[in-house]
Amino acid sequence: MKLSDLQKIDDWTWEIPTAHRADMRVPVRVFGTRELLEDIIGDRSLEQAVNCSTLPGVVGNVYVMPDVHQGYGFPIGGVVATEYPTGVISPGGIGYDINCGVRLLASDIDFREAEEQLDALATALDYLCPSGVGVGGRHPVKDDELDEVAVRGAAWAKSQGLATDDDLRRTESDGTLPGADARYVSERATDRGRTQLGTLGAGNHFIEVQEVEEIFHGEAAGAMGLREGALVVLIHTGSRGYGHQICTDYVKSFQRTMREHQIVVPDRELACAPMDSDEGQAYIGAMRCAANFAFTNRQLLAAGVREAFAEIFGGKVPDWELRQVYDIAHNIGKIETHVVQGKQMKVCVHRKGATRAFGPGTEELPPEYRDLGQPVFVPGSMGTASWVLLGTEGSMARSFGSTCHGAGRNMSRSAARKKVHGATLAHDLEERGIRVRAGSMRGLAEEAPDAYKDVDAVVGAVTGAGIAKRVARLRPVAVVKG
Amino acid sequence: MAWREIEHTADWAIEVTAPHLPGLFRDAAAGLYGLAGCELGNRSPDRDEICVEGPDVETLLVSFLDELLFQLEVHRVAHTTLVPRIDGEELSVITSPVRVVAVNKEIKAVTFHDLEIVQTDDGNFHATVVFDV
Fold this sequence. Notes:
The complex is a heterodimer. By secondary structure, chain A is of the alpha+beta class. Chain A is 34% helix and 26% strand. The longest helix of chain A is centred in the middle third of the chain and has 36 residues, at 278-313. The two termini of chain A are 36 Å apart. The radius of gyration of chain B is 14 Å and the shape is globular. At the A-B interface, strand 4, helix 8, helix 10 and helix 14 of A face helix 2 and strand 7 of B.
């Protein structure tokens, strides 16, 4: 792929027309500046986006976010909509880590007043929020309870006294995707998930304590409870082995399903099934189980974060309590209604490394956000900023109500390990006032800031394109990683 | 070493080369355990058998590695001294299961990405396997 293959629509939007390849059913639209694009064409992400445009039932455009990087089948940072119910659903378009997502909790604790306790807070978070390879959760469940988690999602956590009504209201889809069906989840997925509920995992998952550095949208920040100089907490994780196995199971079984339905795809990781087939419906039921597991997972970790804050700040700092801002998914498939070629159409929106960013007037949003738009969280790498954004009317019109999800990698893990020494990185971060608790120095090196794109540039591109608007910039002060 | 780690932007990938297909399966397993940083306990005289099915050899490989990953994650067992046998759409592998003392890195899944098992002019079999991490 070359830059000359893309047509410039405006300063922030580019298009690969269907003439680029004979099997494309729809164009590919890429959000980004020219500089970001020159980085993007360095890997196979745009070729993968073109492959996505060949899926049966694909409608509108395939959208590519400025933080995109090469994935398997689908690029990571892509949005694909297929017509419901006759179009296909593809597990690869949602990802192995189903409902990997981000939750933001806000406080009124002033960073400067809390600074001396942040080391102790980081240690408490590391202890109370299990992370790392093979580490089990603090709330092991039996199989029938796990099935209940899969169907009820965060509502199960509330029934256990581990969530409030506000937590659920301020979660995408209220923390429960209806239509989850545990009959379509394999015993293997249940075995993997049983001990992992309430765990962070490893890799690029984290809990980060941050300071609200700058506010750009006073009204939205006020509605979200964000105050400049105050501490917030970002939780990034997903459905753990439960979701990973569900995706694995259906990518494998759909290899045979495609033969039965005479579907041919250019990449095996684009394996898919018509949504109105038995196999398609089974995957949808199982995928929703994994999504609900992930909402519950982040809810239980939030409970651990609240315990840590109570331990460190309770009785010492007034108003130490954490309140939920919102919780979003960035690997998910949702049945939504969007305008396609001037008509309302029910579609399955596959968001893989992309975040829902519904605009003002969305009924599902809690009343305090309904006139503003949906909160969106864009974590940067360790040591760099994260962003709070708002969904816009522009995203509804231009990207199936979607925006970016993070900074996006631009360096392989093996290259990062060669370039960066984990212990040195941890020391450098500590020197900059970012306390680090990491289960693996090698894993820390792989997540080095240099391995990621410039999150400020990514956010600049999505706001320039009108598919999000800035609310606040956050800077990290403590990181917990597996 | 019959496997080596290769560059991949977001995940881990290995390239495997072997003089025959059973060897490729055995070396891919070694690659999975190597990337995961497994530390093994003492060997025992026990034997186990892993059986998977698939319409093609790539699916057999993904299914086999998926089984190893499951055993590693849930039962903390690694399967060594592998003797794989492929018969049409079935793979059976006699193994020596070993307790795993520690796993240093988490692998989420074995993918089909870029997976094609090819035999080159020198008679060797090659494959690239990408793991989601």
